[in-house]
Specification:
With about 190 residues, this protein is an alpha+beta fold. The chain contains four helices and five strands; from the N terminus they run ααβββααββ. The strands form two sheets. Strands 3-4-5 form a three-stranded mixed beta sheet. A two-stranded antiparallel sheet has the order 1-2. β1 and β2 form a beta hairpin. α3 crosses α4. The longest helix has 24 residues. It is globular, with a radius of gyration of 18 Å. The two termini are about 30 Å apart.
Length: about 190
Amino acid sequence: MVFLYPNQVLKDRNIMKKKGFPQSYDMRRLVNFVSQIKSGARNVVAPVYSHLTYDIVPDQQQVIDQPDILILEGLNVLQSDMDYPHDPHHVFVSDFVDFSIYVDADPELLKQWYIGRFLKFRQGAFSDPDSYFHNYSKLSEEEAVKIAGSIWDEINGLNLKENILPTKERASLIMTKGENHSIQNVRLRK
């Protein structure tokens, strides 16, 4: 389940390079989904996302039927009204969350991990001709590192700084990872 707008909507709004930023999410649909789940509704539907095509899969839905526990993973689940000046509303995903965990790491480690993951995908998932990122599979390692670093600096790192890090202190628990993804610190808010 990913509540991003479809790529065509992002292209129409000229925000494809803001995918993952608050304005790229259908927050009303996500809030409605979480509200229905929290109220005990049956057979609540959510969009299906393909990491291969990097897009919402048209005409496919995932049905969630009264789970005992629902785990939401996402960049924007702790945001509030100050994070959505472009789309003012008064109910947020965080209003429905009973317990939240923010997984933190030094931004330089995050960049290193992103580049490493990009290089692995370049040799694997990107090699599929149907992959949205297929054109990256033909890059040399040096070119791939340069492009991954640029994507991080211009998109992912910017989103981290502007939209994700400011929500950290709203979490119930902050878990900080170090090198090798080992847990270095856990802080529980009382």
